[in-house]
Amino acid sequence: MAEQTERDVLHHLIDLCRDGERGFRAAADHVSDPALKSLFTELATQRKRFADQLLPHLQRLGGTPDAEGTSAGALHRKWMVLKGLVPGRHDHHIVAEAERGEEAALDAYGDALNGMLPPTVTETVESQRDAIVEAHERIRTIDMGYSIAD
Hints:
Layout: H1 6-30, H2 34-60, H3 71-84, H4 90-114, H5 122-149
Helix pairs in contact: 1-2, 1-3, 1-4, 2-5, 3-4, 4-5
């Protein structure tokens, strides 16, 4: 894989956050449990805030964000919606997909912190990664609750 520039890394993180925002909004729209709706809405707002925090750093490097996010994120959202249409344990399927999405986000943040990242944004990215770790744990705990109930 070609070496990524600082701009590439920030661009990818912003796309990832926008995908997360859209994915969590889609999840909130398709779960029936009010607590899950609230959690997913909260996480969508968080991911929007993350993208907004990273955007000035990308712009300083001459980059501009894509409005659409990534094709992988769009595919993940469609998959989540399809799983939500399955009769029965659809909340469980959506929670499992959200957990999978958080794992991908953690991988991307880990790569960013181990790669090319402007020093001026490292603290922000670390803080965001820590918040994603916490969100992942919250989602994983919910998913484990579904597994125990089965």
